[in-house]
């Protein structure tokens, strides 16, 4: 499986939904809090993402919690 990173903010309901979804699908991921990691925040912004969560799968950036894009990138039906 491609490496997955989840960039989140504290108290973000969409971030929490992404975590729950990844757990339900047994998707392993690295969790990055962009409120504590300014370089990660810059990386997300550089790829056009303005809010949280941001999902990085391999080298593909997905802005927001978009199940369809996540599933397609990971080959989940």
TrEMBL record:
<feature type="domain" description="Glutaredoxin">
    <location>
        <begin position="4"/>
        <end position="61"/>
    </location>
</feature>
<dbReference type="InterPro" id="IPR036249">
    <property type="entry name" value="Thioredoxin-like_sf"/>
</dbReference>
<dbReference type="InterPro" id="IPR002109">
    <property type="entry name" value="Glutaredoxin"/>
</dbReference>
<protein>
    <submittedName>
        <fullName>Glutaredoxin, NrdH/YruB family</fullName>
    </submittedName>
</protein>
<dbReference type="Pfam" id="PF00462">
    <property type="entry name" value="Glutaredoxin"/>
</dbReference>
């Amino acid at each position: 499986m491609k490496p997955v990173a989840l960039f989140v903010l504290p108290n973000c309901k969409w971030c929490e939904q992404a975590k729950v979804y990844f757990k339900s699908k047994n998707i392993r991921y690295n969790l990055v809090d962009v409120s504590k990691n300014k370089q990660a925040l810059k990386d997300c912004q550089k790829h056009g993402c303005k809010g949280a969560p941001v999902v990085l799968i391999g080298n593909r950036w997905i802005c927001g919690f978009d199940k369809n894009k996540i599933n397609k990138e990971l080959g989940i039906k």
